[in-house]
Write a structure and sequence with these properties.
Blueprint (H helix, E strand, L loop, with lengths): L1 H20 L3 E9 L5 E11 L3 E11 L5 H12 L5 H6 L1 E5 L8
Parallel strand pairs: 1-4
Antiparallel strand pairs: 1-2, 2-3
């Protein structure tokens, strides 16, 4: 378990470094209900880096406290804060991609 923890931390550190140099972000999101009837939201971040161009990275899957707009925003905040401060992220957020669920509008 300890070994995988260090691998995960290395991946987070690598993503953090890439996101520090990116000028803008977009976030992709989709939700589903698991077998315990708990809403889960999955987040990906997309940005452009000078050396590799467009990159898409998995941020995480977060349990949504309540399946409404505020709950999904809170889940997004939790997911992003693993990598960077949320207010800093919001300043460079230019797009959000999601399914057509009414709560996402």
């Amino acid at each position: 378990m300890t070994f995988t923890k260090y691998i995960a931390q290395d991946c987070v550190d690598d993503l953090r470094k890439k996101m520090e140099v990116a000028k803008f972000f977009s976030i992709l999101s989709d939700g589903s209900t698991d077998s315990s009837i708990t809403e889960q939201e999955m987040f990906f971040v997309k940005f452009v880096t000078p050396d590799k161009g467009i990159e898409t990275h998995f941020l995480g899957t977060v349990e949504v406290p309540k399946a409404n707009a505020a709950g999904i925003l809170e889940a997004m905040k939790t997911s992003v804060e693993c990598v960077m401060e949320f207010p800093q992220f919001l300043k460079r957020l230019v797009a959000i991609g999601c399914d057509g669920a009414s709560v996402m509008i």
